[in-house]
Each structure stands twice: as structure tokens, then as C-alpha cells.
Amino acid sequence: MKLNRYIIWTTTTDNTKVIMDILEPHCSMVVSITGVIVCLETDISAARIRAYLGDEMKIAVVLITNEFIKKLMNDKFKTEERKNFNRFLELTKVPETIDEALDLISERGGVEFLSAREKYALDQLTNPTEED
Q1: How many Å apart are CA 14 and CA 12, to the nearest integer?
Q2: Nearest to 29 by CA among 90, 95, 72, 74
């Protein structure tokens, strides 16, 4: 189960609400950044997101990468948007190094107490695949 984070821009607040209602069952996390920006964490692809929402809905779906995060935080977001986006990033944070993973395991009291996203990140750190 590979979890990806996406940011979706919509054209109206009503579309944002519809998107959140449709995608929530398919996501581990859905956060509204503003009335027209939604961030989500899911194991479905951007193409599947578009399929669920339909061709008539005008949206932009972008995979959130570390480079993209830096660009958004430095250039694009207003103060309130930055605050809400940071909240989403904190809610979906995973260890990025073996040391961070070991600290988290120690802090939680064992691997069994990690969330699914944290276990996936740990697996990727200890067993990297050809794709990564």
C-alpha cells in the first residue's frame, strides 16, 4: 500500500465540498486548505481521483513532493494557507531516515504502535524497491 499526498485546486467552494465527500472514503486523510484547495493522502492514483470526480469537474491534481512543498511554502501560499498546509504535512508526517524511524519506534513503544503510513515508510527505508 503506497500512500501518496496530493493537492487539488478547484474552482468553487461547492466543488471543494463535493470533492471531499466523494474522496473521503478512499483517503486516510483529507484536509481543506482553503475554500478552493484540498490536500489528501491516499493509495489511489491521480488518474483514479479524476475518474471518481468526473471529467466535468474542473480541477488540478498535483502529487506533493518535497520539491513541490518547498516551492509552495516559499512562493505561493498566503499565511493562512501556509498554516493549514503545515497542519496537513504534520498529520501525514512519516520518518524519512532510519534514525527517525528508530526514534519513533522507541517513542511509541514498538513497531506495532506505528500507523499504517509510518509502517509503510519504515518498510521503504529498510527494503527500498527499484521504483524508489
Answers
A1: 5
A2: 90
Does the global pTM surpass 0.85?
no
The percent helix, strand, coil of the chain (3-state, each to 5) is 55, 20, 30
Letter for the amino acid at 69?
Answer: I
Domains defined for the chain, CATH in brackets: 4-91 (3.30.70), 94-132 (no CATH)
Q: Is 51 left (phi over 0), alpha (psi -120 to 50) or beta?
A: alpha
pLDDT value, residue 131: 53
What average pLDDT values come out for the chain (132 residues) when binned by 10 residues? Answer: 86 92 92 91 92 90 87 76 84 83 87 83 78 49
